[in-house]
Amino acid sequence: MIEVNFDGIIGPTHNYAGLSIGNIASATNAGDVSAPRLAALQGIGKMRRTMALGLRQGIFLPHVRPNTDWLRTLGFVGDDAEVLASAWASDRALIANAMSASAMWTANAGTVSPSSDTADGLCHISVANLSTMPHRASEAAQTERQLRLAFADPRFFRIHSPVPAPFGDEGAANFMRLTSQAGHGAVEMFVYGEGNAGGFPSRQHRTASEAVARRHGIDPARTLLVRQSDAAIAAGAFHNDVVAVSNGHVLFAHEHAFANPAALRSAVQALIPDAVMIEVPADRVSLHTAIRTYLFNSQLVTLPDGGMALILPAEARDDETVWMWLGELVACNGPIRQLEVADVRESMRNGGGPACLRLRVQVDPDALAAIDPRFLLDETVCARIERVIAREWPETIAPDDLGDPRLWERCTAARQALVAALGFGPDEI
Predict the structure, then answer these.
(1) What superfamily in CATH does domain 2-65+100-421 come from?
(2) How far apart are CA 171 and CA 190, in angstroms?
(3) Can you give the residue ranges of every domain in the chain?
(4) Which end of the chain is less enclosed by CB atoms within 10 A, N or C?
(5) Is 239 known to be catalytic?
(6) What is the pLDDT of residue 269?
(7) Helix 405-421 to helix 80-90 angle, to the nearest 10 degrees?
(8) What is the pTM of this model?
(9) Which one from 188, 256, 315, 356 is the annotated catalytic residue?
(10) 356 catalytic, yes or no?
C-alpha cells in the first residue's frame, strides 16, 4: 500500500476570528491580524518537505469564500455583494463564519478506510459533517464535491455522504489505524467523546463513529471504539489528533489521552501483538504543554527506508521540555528514529498543526493511478501554486477587513486564479 497525504491549500481568507470553541489557540489569537499569503506558503513548504522525504503528496483546494450560498440559506438576498453587505450590517459573526478558511485542515474532511480493511475491497471515504461548529458545518458539500472528483473511479473508491448532522463526526482527526509490522491484520480505532468537559463540547459522537465503521464494512472484531478522556478535552484537545497519533504498528500518545488507557493497551496487544505503544508521561510533558506545542499533532510517517519519522511543528522544537523528551525517544533505538520540523506557525495560531493539515489515503498502485492527477503534487505544481499565492493572496487580514468589499472580491479572484492554474474548470470544483 502507498500512503498519500492530501493537504489543504490554505485559502486567501485565512483569518483569526476565534470561531472554534474548545480550541485554545484559536481563542487565544482571536482578533489578531493574520497573514494569509505567509500561511499558504508555509503550508506548501511543509508539502515540499514531505516530498523531499520520499513521501507521496496530494492537495485539496480552498473552498469558495466568502460562502454567499450559506448566507442565502439564512435569508439574505440579492447579488453576492448585497448579500455580504447585508450580513455584515446584521451580524458580523455571520461574515466571520462565511469567510472561514478552516477547510484547510483536511484531517477533518472525512474518515478513510483502505481497501485492505473493507469487506468489499474498496477504499471507503466518509465525508465528515462537522456539525458542532457553524463555520465548519458548511464545509461538507464542497468537501464531498472534491472527494468525488478526486476519487471518482468506482473500481477502487466509494465515497459516502455525511452521517446525519445530529451525530457529530469530525473525520480522520478522531481516527487511528494500526497494523502488524508485516502490514497485515489492521485495527481501526474510532475515538469519541461524551458530553461536555470543562465547558467544551465533545465533537466526535460514538454513534457517528459506529455508523462510519458499519458503512465502510470494517470487521467488528477488528474495530475499537475508544473514549477520549475528559481531561484532554477540557485542556483543549478538541480532536484526538491533538493528543495521539498512530502509524503502522506504533501508537504515540499522551498518558492522559484516553479515558481507559489500560483497556486500550490490552485490546490493541490482543489484536496486534507486535504493536508498540509509546506513552508520554505527564510528569515529563504535561497535558497543557503537549497541547500548547501540538507535540502529538505531528505526522508520524514511514520513510522509504522503512524507518519512521515525526514531522513536528516548530513549537515542539522551541519548548525545551518537549524537545528533550523527543531527543531521548529518538536515542532509545525504538521505531521512531527521525525528527523533522515544519514551520506552520500561521496554522498553529489558529489551532491546527502538521497533522491537521493532511488527510491520509492508503492505496495500491492501481488505485493510485486512478486518482485524478490534478489533486497530486510534484515540484512543478508546487511552483505553480506558489506563484499564484505570491501574486493573489492578501498579505494580511485584520478583523474589520472581513467587511471590506475589496477583500471579498480579491479572495474570490484569488481562488479562481488557483483553480485555473491547476486545470480545473470554473464550475467544476
Answers:
(1) Succinylarginine dihydrolase (3.75.10.20)
(2) 10
(3) 2-65+100-421
(4) N
(5) yes
(6) 96
(7) 130
(8) 0.96
(9) 356
(10) yes
